[in-house]
Amino acid sequence: MNVIQKYFRYRQSLIDQYIRGDMSKSEYLEANLDAVLALNIPPFRRIDSLDKGLYNYQYFNAMAKDARAVSRDFDDYDLRREQFEESNHYYQQKDQATMAVLKLLDYCGVQAYFINVRSQYLKGKLFEIVIEDYQMILHSANPLILKNLRENGVFTEGMRKSLIDGYINQKYY
User: Fold this and answer.
1) Is there a contact between 129 and 110 (Cβ–Cβ < 8 Å)?
2) 151 lies in which domain range?
3) Is 40 exposed, middle or buried (0-12, 13-18, 19+ CB in 10 A)?
4) Structural domains in the chain (count)
5) In this structure, is residue 173 part of a structural domain?
6) Tens digit of pLDDT for each residue in 48-102?
7) How many of the other CB atoms lie within 10 Å of CB of 172?
8) Which helix (H) or strand (E) holds 110?
9) What is the C-alpha end-to-end distance of the chain, expressed in Å?
10) Per the domain annotation, does 151 fall within a domain?
11) Residue 150 placed within a domain
């Protein structure tokens, strides 16, 4: 088993702890970020395997959530804005990893749909991408990803409850 696969096994154990109520969403996010950083593996420049693509997704998602949480700690508007922009940059990188994963899969074994969210900002924008064979759930609000999902016939219109609704709709800051 390679290092990335070990990370995903550890991540699953964190998810299991979160589901059991042994840790909060904030604790899960912090432990996941620590795990990604402890690997000391930078994101891959070339994504030529699903493991690399899914790792990049998790790496950038963890970094984005951390930067977003840190941005709320600043009283200074400029510092807060700088962290928020850093978070957005990581979310853009996460979306690039999502696109690479979908292309590697050729959209096979993928289903996607909008999800119900409490956030007014994300309402009608956030969608869930389920990669069935890998039991992986990705999220995005990227219009280009949405367009590609629709064009490849894997996006179902309408709103659904997220497969991880309790997690998605729980605040973490």
Assistant:
1) yes
2) 3-168
3) exposed
4) 1
5) no
6) 999 999 999 999 999 999 999 888 888 888 888 999 999 999 999 999 999 999 9
7) 14
8) strand 110-115
9) 34
10) yes
11) yes
